[in-house]
C-alpha cells in the first residue's frame, strides 16, 4: 500500500498540482509551484521533492525561503522518510539545512501538528511541504520545539528576524 501511494504522489508531483493547490502554494511560498524534481531539468521556484536514488521511501525536498520572511534567499533541504505503513502513519520530515526557527530544532526536527497527532491519510507530501512553507512565514511560538527562540520571537521580533537572516546567509545560501 505504501509503495503504491508514494508512486502516486511522485506521479502527481511530476505533473504539477491542481490549480487550487498551486494558488495556495503561491500564497505560502510566494509564487512557487510544488513540483517533483524527478525528470525535471529546471528547478521549481519554491518547493520541490523527489526520491533519493532508487529508494522511493527516502526523498529529498527543497524549499526556497519565502520572500516575505527572514529566510528569503535561502535554499533549505529536507529529508523525508516514508514509513512502510504510509499513508496511515505520517512521513518523518526534517531539515538537513540549519535554520533558526522556534518550531525547528538543531537536529532539524519539525514541530508541526500534521506530522504528529493531526496526521490524516488524506494529506500528501505536497500539503506537508505547503504547511512547512507557511510555517516559515508564520511561526507558531505557542507550540515551540525551541522555547528560547520562541521567547525571542515573542519579545524581540527584530532580533529574531536578524538572527534568522544571519543563519539563512550562513547556512542556506
Automatic annotation (TrEMBL):
This is Ubiquitin-conjugating enzyme E2-16 kDa. The keyword Transferase applies. It comes from the Eukaryota. The lineage of its organism: Eukaryota, Fungi, Dikarya, Ascomycota, Pezizomycotina. The active site is at 111 (glycyl thioester intermediate). GO terms for molecular function: ATP binding; ubiquitin conjugating enzyme activity. It comes from Akanthomyces muscarius. Residues 1-173 form the UBC core domain. Belongs to the ubiquitin-conjugating enzyme family. SUPFAM superfamilies: UBC-like. PANTHER family: UBIQUITIN-CONJUGATING ENZYME E2 (PTHR24068). Its EC number is 2.3.2.23. Gene3D superfamilies: Ubiquitin Conjugating Enzyme. It holds the Pfam family UQ_con. The keyword ATP-binding applies. Keywords: ATP-binding, Nucleotide-binding, Transferase, Ubl conjugation pathway.
